[in-house]
């Protein structure tokens, strides 16, 4: 069963091509990630799928309904959490939840099972105004509000932006549990490390999809052996590698530099000798596995 | 004081009424070091940083930044540090050149010096073609690189970066880090506050604040060994969850 | 229906939890009415004047006594020579000097005419005019008293009678204006701000993606303000009746209906503003510049429309407030019924229908 189907969607604002010929499908009960930096077109795509914007070209269906013709049916059957946690700051936690339950024609009690896991964590603060909650708690409340009418499909636009690692971790755990209840989830994030938590991902940049697959498969596509390089001086190391005639890519990665070579018969010892000739010491070169970020950069190059 | 220590903090504390936002933190940062200052929302890192850049008065403790005392010489501190945050960076309705000139002017650079600096900076960032375009029209990544370079315009001893690379694409982010490495290599100390743990991996040393206290302080490598973690994210999770 | 009630409940939470909007809602009407009623007035009271009396005879003394006995003037200073007049004005307190010529009484008896000069400080032309009118009135009254035994043929004595506001109380003029401003402010500005606030917060996106229908969102947003505006109108009318003793000559019921009509037209304008503004700030600017200024300047509330240049007179016709002021003045002061103001009512009704139609058409069910 296909839950979300996007076919050749394009959208432009004035001179900017926000989305260019986007196509993908999300299966029912799948946790699908849209991974890309700010300005990649993620929010525009979410707004088209939640019937808030018209696409210039292409068609899309959500839960079997066309986003243009059947927009009313879609509005009844999806949950949407926009980029910033859209809550009423001057309403309490409980009032926010109650309000969203009411406008979707349901009650908190009716669907309490679905949100119970999440809501119990913020229930002790139910009389606190939403504006006074921490980022993590706001995020949980916003998710509860998006879930309260038991949607078939859940759209989460950058739900973890501005939230600390602990809350991020908890949030992804919650998404996994929701998925087990049969809800299809489309989530967007600029954080490459979150991609691994999705069933399948689409890498998106400048309105174009670079690749769609499972996180494991995407990493396997990486065309070249990739090496961790370390030396005593990071800045000189980067400069030296950039100046090396055989380099294919040089990207700092935390305490290492990820290096790929454009020769098929690359020998790390040659590189080591070169770096030593540039007065670097403590040189350490080892083979490593590509990450999603490496793939993203290779594809976006 | 030791000339190599550009930030010296001892028992620095900030109370808001009964609430201790920053609880007797102690650490030192070397010249040319990239120091990561991590913590969850509400752990107290913003409050601590405000004290270090001289816009909030400590309740007790000692701190010396760029050679000046945070209690008595905040004006001198401000002259000797740079600051960049994702929230406030540059004026969107001024051109690249106008922004550089404006910030150069704030720090009292001479007209001639501003001209030299602008030319050098525009060339280094490859912005020749957009030098007279409005900053608002530039891609986010360019803005951030420009913003970082502008924060260095008066050759500060320390530059404070508040969550500098959130949401930027991975390639631009690396170009940004290359700029940081370059600044550090030239002797500028870089103080990064963030709650994005992958940013932490790039720092020479990181401190992690939990509930107003510094609970860990070391190189990312040693912290990962100490907490038997694969990455800084895991280190953080282990620490924050107790 | 349950959805709708839930929505309205939320709106009231917003209003009652925001001190600023509460202040605008309830503080403003009271402050404005009191301000306009007490402070800003065309009447004069206890104006300081000075006397330069070259005759010092029985007649001038009598006239001076009459003037000082009135509540309008208090004699601050008696000066002796022409040269002092200038310096008296320069000191600033004295607003007028009465200069009686030499041999005032003698001239009056012998030549049947005598001159008194009224010199007023015209830096404030309105006050100067009023002072000179009041002094004239006192002089004329005195003349009448003196001449009452003598009959002069062919004398025309104009007698002016001010109808509907016999005491020329300026509060009568201001109440309809203030009521109009406040209803406009509360209705149009507050609704436009409350709708744009949802856009800014991003909650509008969620509302749009919910099964709520657009008209439900609009009515839900507008309903609390209809209610609050009606309360405001009642408070204003009560204040003016009980504090300023302003009469309501006509039907209260008609007054209420006309007010509701005006409130609805203002709300429709508010929705219209919210559809074209993305932020609360823009909505507020548009409301203030686009609605408040015309209401204050062009509705005939402060400046009479008949004395405006022709283009402005034409423009004033498209301002709903102009028609509403005519209507409430008619009902409150003249006591007229619908048969006299049906034309204005129809114009207002037409405008309201137009604004509602336009705002419903303009209201977007999507973000574009």
UniProtKB/TrEMBL annotation, chain B:
Tell where it localizes: Membrane
- The answer to whether UniProt assigns keyword Transmembrane to this entry is yes
GO CC list: membrane
Residues of the ABC transporter domain: 7-236
Membrane protein topology class: Multi-pass membrane protein
Q: Name one GO molecular function term.
A: ATP hydrolysis activity
What InterPro entries does the entry give? AAA+_ATPase, ABC_transporter-like_ATP-bd, P-loop_NTPase
UniProt xrefs under SUPFAM superfamilies: P-loop containing nucleoside triphosphate hydrolases
What is the protein's given name?
Answer: ABC transporter ATP-binding protein
UniProtKB/TrEMBL annotation, chain C:
Answer whether the UniProt record assigns the keyword Cell membrane to this protein. Answer: yes
- Keyword Cytoplasm attributed: no
Q: Which UniProt keywords apply?
A: Cell membrane, Membrane, Transmembrane, Transmembrane helix, Transport
**Which positions fall inside the ABC transmembrane type-2 domain?**
139-366
May I ask which residue range the UniProt record assigns to the signal sequence?
none
InterPro entries per the UniProt record, alphabetical: ABC-2_transporter_component (IPR051449), ABC2_TM (IPR013525), ABC2_TM_bact-type (IPR047817), ABC_2_transport (IPR000412)
Residues in a coiled coil are: none
Going by the entry's taxonomy, the superkingdom of the source organism is recorded as Bacteria
List the membrane topology term(s): Multi-pass membrane protein
Q: Which GO terms describe its molecular function?
A: ABC-type transporter activity
Per UniProt, subcellular location reads as: Cell membrane
Pfam families, sorted: ABC2_membrane_3
What cellular-component terms does GO give this entry?
A: ATP-binding cassette (ABC) transporter complex
Spans traversing the lipid bilayer: 21-40, 171-195, 222-244, 250-273, 285-304, 340-360
Family classification = Belongs to the ABC-2 integral membrane protein family.
Protein name, please?
Answer: Transport permease protein
Protein source organism: Pontimicrobium aquaticum
């Amino acid at each position: 069963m296909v839950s979300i189907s996007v076919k050749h969607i394009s959208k432009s604002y004035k001179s900017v091509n926000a989305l260019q010929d986007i196509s993908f499908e999300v299966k029912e009960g799948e946790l699908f990630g849209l991974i890309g930096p700010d300005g990649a077109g993620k929010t525009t795509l979410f707004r088209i799928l939640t019937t808030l914007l018209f696409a210039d070209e292409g068609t899309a269906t959500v839960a079997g309904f066309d986003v243009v013709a059947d927009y009313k049916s879609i509005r009844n059957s999806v949950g949407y959490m926009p980029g910033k946690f859209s809550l009423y700051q001057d309403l309490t936690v409980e009032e926010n939840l109650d309000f969203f339950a009411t406008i979707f024609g349901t009650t908190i009690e009716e669907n309490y099972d679905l949100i119970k896991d999440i809501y119990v964590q913020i229930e002790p603060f139910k009389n606190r105004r939403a504006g006074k909650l921490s980022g993590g708690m706001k995020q949980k409340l916003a998710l509860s509000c998006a879930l309260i009418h038991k949607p078939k499909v859940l759209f989460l636009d950058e739900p973890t932006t501005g939230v600390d690692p602990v809350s991020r971790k908890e949030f992804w755990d919650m998404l996994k549990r929701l998925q087990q209840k049969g809800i299809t989830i489309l989530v967007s994030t600029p954080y490459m490390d979150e991609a691994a938590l999705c069933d399948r991902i689409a890498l998106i940049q400048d309105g174009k999809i670079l690749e769609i697959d499972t996180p494991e498969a995407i990493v396997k596509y990486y065309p070249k052996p990739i090496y961790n390089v370390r030396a005593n001086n990071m800045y000189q190391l980067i400069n030296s590698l950039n100046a090396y005639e055989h380099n294919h890519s040089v990207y700092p990665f935390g305490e290492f530099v990820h290096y790929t070579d454009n020769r098929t018969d690359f020998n790390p010892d040659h590189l080591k000798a070169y770096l030593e000739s540039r007065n670097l010491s403590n040189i350490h070169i080892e083979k490593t596995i590509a990450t999603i970020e490496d793939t993203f950069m290779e594809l976006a190059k | 004081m030791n000339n190599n220590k550009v930030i010296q903090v001892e028992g620095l504390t900030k109370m808001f009424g009964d609430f201790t936002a920053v609880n007797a933190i102690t650490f030192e940062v070397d010249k040319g070091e990239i120091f990561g200052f991590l913590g969850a929302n509400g752990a107290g890192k913003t409050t601590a940083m405000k004290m270090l850049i001289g816009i909030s008065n400590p309740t007790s403790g000692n701190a010396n930044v760029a050679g000046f005392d945070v209690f008595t010489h905040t004006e001198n501190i401000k002259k000797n540090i740079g600051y960049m945050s994702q929230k406030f960076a540059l004026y969107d309705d001024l051109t690249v050149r106008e922004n550089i000139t404006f910030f150069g002017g704030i720090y009292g650079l001479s007209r001639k010096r501003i001209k030299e600096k602008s030319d050098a900076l525009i060339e280094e960032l490859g912005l020749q073609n957009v030098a007279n375009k409005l900053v608002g029209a530039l891609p986010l990544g360019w803005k951030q690189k420009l913003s970082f370079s502008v924060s260095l315009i008066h050759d500060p001893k320390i530059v404070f970066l508040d969550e500098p690379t959130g949401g930027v694409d991975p390639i631009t982010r690396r170009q940004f880090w290359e700029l940081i490495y370059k600044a550090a290599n030239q002797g500028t100390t870089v103080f990064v506050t963030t709650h994005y743990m992958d940013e932490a991996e790039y720092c020479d040393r990181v401190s992690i604040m939990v509930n107003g206290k510094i609970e860990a302080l070391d190189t990312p490598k040693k912290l990962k060994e100490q907490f038997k973690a694969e990455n800084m994210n895991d280190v953080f999770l282990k620490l924050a969850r107790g | 229906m349950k959805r709708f009630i839930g929505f309205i409940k939320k709106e009231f939470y917003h209003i009652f939890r925001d001190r600023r909007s509460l202040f605008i809602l309830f503080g403003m009407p009271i402050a404005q009415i009191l301000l306009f009623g007490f402070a800003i007035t065309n009447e004069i009271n206890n104006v300081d004047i000075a006397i330069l009396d070259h005759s010092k005879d029985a007649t001038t003394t009598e006239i001076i006594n009459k003037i000082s006995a009135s509540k309008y003037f208090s004699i601050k200073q008696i000066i002796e020579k022409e040269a002092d007049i200038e310096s008296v004005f320069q000191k600033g307190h004295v607003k007028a000097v009465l200069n009686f010529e030499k041999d005032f009484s003698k001239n009056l008896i012998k030549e049947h005419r005598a001159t008194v000069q009224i010199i007023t400080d015209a830096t404030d032309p309105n006050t100067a005019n009023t002072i000179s009118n009041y002094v004239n009135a006192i002089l004329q009254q005195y003349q009448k008293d003196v001449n009452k035994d003598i009959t002069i043929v062919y004398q025309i004595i104009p007698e002016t009678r001010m109808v509907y506001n016999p005491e020329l109380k300026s509060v009568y003029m201001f109440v309809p204006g203030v009521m109009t401003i406040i209803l406009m402010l509360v209705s149009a500005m507050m609704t436009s701000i409350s709708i744009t606030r949802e856009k800014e917060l991003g909650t509008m996106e969620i509302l749009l993606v919910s099964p709520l229908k657009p008209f439900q969102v609009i009515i839900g947003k507008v309903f609390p303000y209809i209610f609050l505006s009606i309360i405001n109108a009642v408070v204003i009318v009560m204040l003016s009746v009980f504090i300023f003793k302003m009469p309501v000559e006509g039907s209260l019921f008609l007054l209420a209906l006309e007010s509701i009509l005006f409130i609805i037209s203002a709300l429709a304008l508010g929705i219209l503003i919210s559809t074209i503004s993305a932020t609360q700030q823009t909505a507020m600017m548009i409301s203030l510049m686009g609605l408040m200024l015309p209401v204050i300047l062009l509705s005939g509330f402060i400046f009479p429309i008949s004395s405006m240049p022709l283009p402005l007179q034409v423009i004033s016709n498209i301002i709903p407030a102009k028609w509403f002021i005519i209507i409430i003045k008619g009902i409150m002061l003249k006591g007229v019924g619908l048969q006299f103001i049906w034309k204005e009512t129809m114009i207002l009704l037409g405008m309201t229908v137009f604004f509602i139609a336009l705002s419903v058409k303009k209201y977007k069910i999507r973000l574009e």
